[in-house]
Design a protein that fits this description.
Elements (H helix, E strand, L loop, with lengths): L2 H11 L2 H38 L3 H11 L9 H24 L9 H31 L10 H9 L11 H28 L4 H31 L11 H11 L4 H4 L3 H26 L2
Length: 294
């Protein structure tokens, strides 16, 4: 790390407005990218049915078709709220943790510090967003349509359950997934972007590709955890909603016939969606950040 960069960081650490801008820019980038959530929600719901029932795309689409258009967007509210808030939390908390640990910059590489702050941010993310994902997965499970016809009925039912079986079902896998994902994202984001800048790409293109590539690198190994979370959270008060992480993972592995290929069923679609979404989010955030420094 050069001395000029270190001096610049030290100055920005003392500026309370710099940390606030991270929350603001993160929230703005997320709000813009919520449009991709709305546009691709039917795709995500198709993948969710594949994750839950181990079906091919044709069968998952047939399920949604039989349920009708009015139920196609059932369960969209929680991911919309999460997406709107995620950037604020992700970029803001990570920047706060990174600035508070900047005294270690003389001893540790900057990407490592940024990754460590990302891990801490992922833990906070899981604590905040697990209840949202729990409600979303219950609503997206077609088997719950009659038992829980509205979002409020789901909230009432989960409120009656202990936290570990209710709103915070599958917390540990979500902590692992979000902590590892956020750590990798922030550890790789700037180095990948800088390499692309050196290849002659425009700043916006470098940021978009950096976000997309990082999302691919993160989503591929962590996708099975998302499948496990979906299966753990889709039921309420049923057998599949009672086992712990180990029992649920064993049950999922047996249901997928001990096949990695079946475990990754639907993965290509959701990973592509994630790459586009995080490419847009990263490009918008970096553009706002560059504008504030000029």
């Amino acid at each position: 790390m050069g001395q000029d960069a270190a001096d610049g960081d030290a100055t920005s650490d003392k500026n309370p407005g710099a940390s606030f801008r991270s929350y603001l820019y993160g929230g703005t980038s997320s709000l813009v990218s919520t449009m991709t959530t709305i546009a691709t929600f039917p795709l995500y719901k198709t993948v969710f049915r594949q994750q839950l029932h181990n079906t091919v795309v044709r069968e998952a689409v047939a399920q949604l078709y039989r349920e009708g258009f009015l139920k196609l967007y059932r369960g969209v509210a929680p991911p919309l709220l999460v997406r709107a808030l995620q950037g604020t939390l992700l970029f803001g908390v990570q920047d706060t943790l990174y600035r508070n640990s900047s005294y270690l910059a003389e001893h540790l590489p900057r990407p490592l510090l940024q990754a460590a702050a990302g891990v801490g941010t992922g833990v906070v993310e899981a604590l905040v967003f697990t209840p949202f994902e729990r409600v979303q997965n219950v609503l997206q499970n077609g088997k719950n349509d009659h038992r829980f016809p509205t979002q409020w009925s789901v909230l009432a039912r989960l409120s009656a359950e202990p936290l570990a079986r209710g709103f915070y079902r599958a917390l540990l896998p979500m902590v692992a997934r979000n902590a590892l994902g956020s750590g990798l994202y922030f550890g790789l984001k700037n180095p990948v972007r800088d390499v692309l800048d050196q290849q002659g790409l425009s700043p916006t293109a470098s940021s978009f590709v950096s976000g997309a590539v990082n999302s691919l690198v993160i989503s591929l190994p962590l996708y099975p955890i998302s499948v496990l979370v979906a299966n753990m959270q889709a039921g309420v008060g049923e057998e599949e909603a009672r086992g712990g992480v180990r029992a649920s993972a064993r049950r999922l592995w047996v249901a997928r016939q001990r096949s990695i290929a079946l475990l990754y069923r639907g993965g290509s679609l959701v990973i592509l969606r994630s790459c586009v979404s995080w490419g847009i989010t990263t490009a918008i955030y970096d553009r706002l950040e560059r504008g504030s420094s000029t």
